[in-house]
Write a structure and sequence with these properties.
alpha+beta; 4-stranded antiparallel β-sheet; 3 helices
Length: 100
């Protein structure tokens, strides 16, 4: 069983309430069985546009696919999705094992 990390790099719409919306979505989504965590990182370079990276973890690919399918169907996460201006990256990742 290989842990799956889903990473989204996002440009958000302007809005002071985005943290409230994201936290409501986080509380709702992480309450689902199979969601190990949801971490958010923010870029720090003030001379460039602010980017957010939302990182989700799941125990395996089957769980990741099953649970993420519900993301766009839940009211709290729909509200979060409505605040996204652009998704730059959105993909499943796992640990790289070099073929050496």
């Amino acid at each position: 069983m290989t842990e799956i990390t889903e990473i989204f790099v996002l440009k958000m719409k302007d809005g002071e309430h985005i943290d409230t919306v994201r936290e409501a979505a986080r509380k709702d989504f992480t309450s689902l069985e199979g969601v190990t965590s949801w971490e958010t990182l923010v870029s720090t370079d003030p001379s460039r546009p602010t980017l957010y990276t939302d990182i989700f973890k799941f125990p395996d690919m089957a769980t990741a696919k099953r649970v993420t399918a519900q993301f766009s169907e839940r009211p709290a996460t729909q509200a979060f999705l409505a605040e996204i201006g652009e998704i730059l990256v959105g993909q499943f990742f796992t640990t790289h094992t070099p073929n050496i």
